[in-house]
Amino acid sequence: MPPKKKLSGAQFKQIREEKKAAAVKNSGNIQQFFTRKLPSTQTAQSQSEDENDELNREQNMEVQCNDTLSETDSSNQHRVGQEEDSIEINFNNPKTWKIDKNSIKLYIEQGPINGDDISVYPVTNNRRFEKKWFTRTMTNGEKVHRNWLIYCEQLDSLFCFPCILFNDDRSSIWLNGFNDWQHLNPYLPRHENSTSHRSNYIKMKTFEKKLKCGGFIDDHLLKEFDKERAKWRHILKVILDAIFHCVKNNDALRGSSEVIGRPDCGKFLNTIELISHYDATIKKHIETHNKGTISYFSPAIQNELINLAAQQVQSHIISDIKAAKYFSILFDCTTDISHKEQMVQIIRYVKIENKKCTIEESFITFINTEEKTGEGLSGEILDKLRKDGLDIANVRGQSYDNGANMAGKYKA
Fold first, then answer.
1. Per-residue model confidence (pLDDT) at position 2
2. Distance between CA atoms of 347 and 395, rounded to whole angstroms?
3. Which of 163, 192, 213 is the last residue of a domain?
4. Rounded to two decimals, what is the model's pTM?
5. Strand intervals (E) in 90-155
6. How open is the CA angle 392-397-398, to the nearest 5 degrees?
7. Is the pLDDT of residue 71 over 50?
8. Beta strand spans in 141-252 (E)
9. Which of 146, 272, 264 is closest to 197 using CA atoms?
10. What mean pLDDT value characterizes the chain?
11. Model confidence at 410, in pLDDT bands (50, 70, 90)?
12. CB neighbours (10 Å) of residue 381?
């Protein structure tokens, strides 16, 4: 056998370049395991993946139905998502709806506003929607109301209520509005009998049943929240009743101690203790109350509740005065125990209720003043009437103390 010929340097260089080119060429194949791109010609494979995506979407919607109530409203809400107490929702215009977990619950609780109470529908392209499409005639002659169908008067279009809430394909004409009245006959029955519509309708009914029967995972948690909310509302109601009892009898609320049960704790806390003998919720609240926890028994809370109640009373009185239109004003200055000058505001007016007229003389508030001159006092009176929304032109009588000052005798 002849000896093996040794390769030249050029040949070694060529072999290295070929190996390098092969390595670069094969390195692209590994990327296919991470980023997979399908050619447009692979129709069968695309359809298979579409079916898998559809199955995943259906499974996700089932999870969505079971988890819709998992997020609780931390700011009391209603009850309409967290912003339902401040945002007005048009339940007849699905284009303005926000689709999320909390909103779906709200829409199903409200139910679709079909728009079947309109007497005459508008004309579009020489055609109009007719009310008969809200009723489906079955093969046996039975008539069934299409309660899932929504006619939006604002957009003059039809929408499908369950598909809006549970359909993943947001490009459907029944989610964006259908108003081709000329071809409504084939499109409406075709959509009604479609697999996606039936699936979404079943999801809506299942969701609705769970709302009524309490079949969600976090129903027990929500019930605990409701119990806690009811407990604190009951406690606040008892505290308000105790405050009103002391106020009606013109009693001082506080004593020298803030510990319930001590002789010097004051009439308010003594009243709370008396109520606890007959109210198990208040008794438990007192027994479990520790220093640093919320009790609503503190003087700051008492003053806040009194101020809130005073604002409601003042608002009611001002409303009666505005309804009467004409009124008389009475202002009197006096010095309190801390030697601060206070001006009392009293208004007289005629109140008509149940066809009976009565003359009311209502105390409004105390006005802290440092003015002594007629000009200064009159300015404060006008400012207070302006804040109350009362027109000085409707004043029909005036009464003041410090007559010399109000007459303008002392201006400085």
1. 54
2. 10
3. 213
4. 0.46
5. 123-124, 127-128, 135-137, 143-145, 149-152
6. 85
7. no
8. 143-145, 149-152, 157-160
9. 146
10. 77
11. low
12. 21
